[in-house]
Amino acid sequence: xxxxxxxxxxxTLRDGQQTPGIDFSVEDKIAISAMLDAFGLDYxxxxxxxxxxxxxxxxxxxxxxxxxxxxxxxxxxxxxxxxNDPGLTALLQAKSDTICFVAKSWDYHVRVALxxxxxxxxxxxxxxxxxxxxxxxxxxxxxxxxxxxxxANADYALACARTALEAGARWVVLCDTNGGTQPxxxxxxxxxxxxxxxxxxxxxxxxxxxxxQAVANSLAAVDAGVRQIQGTLNGIGERCGNANLVTLIPTxxxxxxxxERFETGISAEALEGIxxxxxxxxxxxxxxxxxxxxxxGASAFATKAGIHASALIKEPQTYEHVPPETVGNRRKVxxxxxxxxxxFIAELKRRGxxxxxxxxxxxxxxxxxxxxxxxxxxxxxxxxxxxxxARRFLHTVPEFFRVNSFRCMVERRYxxxxxxxxxxxxxxxxxxxxxxxxxxxEGHGPxxxxxxxLRKDLGKFQNEIADLELADYKVRILNGGxxxxxxxxxxxxxxxGARWSTVGVSDNIIDASFQxxxxxxxxxxxxxxxxAGLVAAE
Amino acid sequence: xxxxxxxxxxxTLRDGQQTPGIDFSVEDKIAISAMLDAFGLDYxxxxxxxxxxxxxxxxxxxxxxxxxxxxxxxxxxxxxxxxNDPGLTALLQAKSDTICFVAKSWDYHVRVALxxxxxxxxxxxxxxxxxxxxxxxxxxxxxxxxxxxxxANADYALACARTALEAGARWVVLCDTNGGTQPxxxxxxxxxxxxxxxxxxxxxxxxxxxxxQAVANSLAAVDAGVRQIQGTLNGIGERCGNANLVTLIPTxxxxxxxxERFETGISAEALEGIxxxxxxxxxxxxxxxxxxxxxxGASAFATKAGIHASALIKEPQTYEHVPPETVGNRRKVxxxxxxxxxxFIAELKRRGxxxxxxxxxxxxxxxxxxxxxxxxxxxxxxxxxxxxxARRFLHTVPEFFRVNSFRCMVERRYxxxxxxxxxxxxxxxxxxxxxxxxxxxEGHGPxxxxxxxLRKDLGKFQNEIADLELADYKVRILNGGxxxxxxxxxxxxxxxGARWSTVGVSDNIIDASFQxxxxxxxxxxxxxxxxAGLVAAE
Lengths: 538, 538
Prior knowledge:
The structure is a homodimer.
Chain A: E1 4-5, E2 7-10, H1 26-39, E3 43-47, H2 53-58, E4 68-74, H3 86-93, E5 98-104, H4 107-114, H5 118-134, E6 138-144, H6 146-152, H7 154-166, E7 171-175, H8 183-195, E8 203-206, H9 214-224, E9 228-231, H10 245-254, H11 256-259, E10 262-263, H12 268-271, H13 274-285, E11 302-303, H14 307-314, E12 332-333, H15 338-350, H16 360-375, H17 383-394, E13 402-414, E14 420-432, E15 435-443, H18 446-454, E16 469-477, E17 486-493, E18 499-506, H19 509-531
Parallel strand pairs in A: 1-10, 2-3, 2-9, 3-4, 4-5, 5-6, 6-7, 7-8, 8-9, 11-12
Antiparallel strand pairs in A: 13-14, 14-15, 16-17, 17-18
Helix pairs in contact in A: 1-13, 5-7, 6-7, 8-9, 16-17, 18-19
InterPro entries (chains A, B): 2-isopropylmalate_synth_dimer, AIPM/Hcit_synth_CS, Aldolase_TIM, Citramal_synthase, LeuA/HCS_post-cat, LeuA_allosteric_dom_sf, PYR_CT
EC number (chains A, B): 2.3.3.21
Keywords (chains A, B): Amino-acid biosynthesis, Branched-chain amino acid biosynthesis, Isoleucine biosynthesis, Transferase
């Protein structure tokens, strides 16, 4: 049996941008669209060009290679021609493959929000789709409030969908804008829409999570015949969020109820990247990943000490609904470190460090890593710090230099002219080959001043770190309140294009930053030696 | 038409206890069972007496007044009589109204995990239910892996259910233990179970969220005929969690698809307490509530988009699937650069600030908010800073005190014994009523030291801020690299239980923290005056 294709449409950069607390810069949007494109989604909706300067700037170029790059906007206003509507003009000027128009399909909203007649709204839909097609774009129409509209006036909701298709739209997307529709209702209404002559092959679903059923509503719609799903990474979105693509995709690919009938653009191999995709996205948002997230959460395959654990070790399929590797996640049995040791050996091997299973330095290293992770270190996101720690245990890392002391000072006062002024300064004392060097620097803040002072004079190593750059600096407070523990993650890069991440943890943000800065410099010096084949000679 | 009763069964204290990172003390369990009982749940499962000292201690008394207090445990082992099974004995000694036995119903698990015959397992179910009934308890049986078991061997899964009922169990609960079953499958299998002669009135559903559909699976089961739902507060539970009762209950009570057919023990009035219940539970777990949680999250009725906001203010039902008051939540029109003038007026009104639409200070305020948000301020997460900014524009905020200067210092060095030591110190100079005061403090880091020094001596205001506490401190780096801009969000609370959030932005983390700390103190002083009716007198 040939499988039917389900198209995946990502709206992280548009509906996701409506999440309270989330605001993407152009750089964020570029990074996220690249992640989505590489993962294999069919459509990447980038935003609403013309509505704000960020989105307009983002659409000055096409940002995807494989995925259809999509611009979102409203249908033209009633009473003006398509060519005289400034919103539509901005949309047509945006560099996109596809234009997704949002159109009212609930007559009540046509009256209250648009203040035009039902017929004028249909004419707007038709003229907007025409204009997009004339400009060489694929057109689609998001029917806002479709389900509520259908309950109130089915004929009019259907007329909106039909008008869009007749004008040449590739897709008509049924939106549960307020998010209150139940799966049984979605299934029933989609069935009626298809029975009314609108082909499922042209239908999409856009669900919100206001009753915790955005995923179920999307799947119910697919089961009832729609062939496109709109959703977001990690389910961000207005109010309670949109349908979570990170949850939906593994279900579509792995669960027989769907996998036997449908295929998506995501291969089994690509699916193994979904845990990483989800975590990288949270990292970019600088928020803690949800440990209980389906498929990709740190706890999704975790079993706590108890009746399940021993059975799980003997026969994983007894307590796992899918194998964790299929989604790039891993089993976590919290009662025993047996799985842990094998993981460690594999992680070390990946870095060129071979350790026999019975080497007892390995047990000591595992114990230290567990202890430090309990304190807040996150080695999963700090490869270079993990490698340094391991090499310190298993081989030796040379003490290239030693920081004898540092001092950071931030002073804020009114200057002679009565203007507020804040000055940050750092002083560092370093020993290199027995010689003490003292450096001082000003910076934008205490960490920046410390970083500059630390890298100002490392004697014979100075040339080697000249190309070291801080690419990113992230701070997370691990527990709130006054006893807060701070975790700092630093990403560094050099002229070869290499990137590495280091971590520091302390109740003092300066201390945590210092640890991560030090690890970064030492890692760079170590790598230089390794590349030059000098490690043995040290 | 008389409505059918749905029974709500809470397993927060048992399956919820399996959540990685969550461990309840006896005191926690007492507090939580009181919350659940007061809210109106039908069953409160308290734990597994005999399995660990906490649960055994918790079951030395009956802990609920209205709800049926339920003890969980395994059916008796094969090969011993009920009276010789120590696990069963502990269960019968526990002070409970109901005993919930977990029984294997997948023949594969009977073989692999129990190592007994199918018939011996049925005999254990029967004997265990008998023993509970003989001890005067209501009995119920959780059929573990029921759906996977039914797919593998429907006859045996049904035999387990039937055996439990024939022995006199009030309920047989169909458990999706591994959490991978899809709603379509739940619906189909429940239908077959009822068709096989097991009455829906005796059936319950126990769903896990491994595909993000625990709520949908529970509702599909109800629709197909079961009359009891097991779940937890805020969806905690093993791996991805259990069905979230906080999401399920409003849907059952408010959504016509269910409310027209069913009733629960939760009245419309009690339902208004559900947001508080959810937040109090997170408070007890000491974790930040999920802002996007359906019905009860801080963002569940929040609107950021300008186009939605004006319609929302005119006619809330246009963009709300249920009225927020019905679940004790509230509408939130976000102040953000996406929102329009209507947002602003509504937000100001909510804070008791009335501004006419044509007041041109309003336009100036909107311009300043937009400019500051472009710099990185996030007023939607910092209510108190927004209110202060607005009041400064529209009325006046007294200058209670003035910070003339501050200095923070962090020093790290080796002490006389060669141990590393980091010291953080801050000095603050403040003018109150023309008198300069100088305070110095040490802290865990520079921000902590600054906070302590700042609040050490504010002269006549000192008593007023004695109960001010930092509840949370968050840092976000808005753009990576060395030119990073830092945003600090601070949540404060006082003895009245009031909480407020303030924001600071700067390229210097100390400066950003200082702004947020200052806003917090000034907001508190302003609120004190407002409550005392003194604003006019200032």
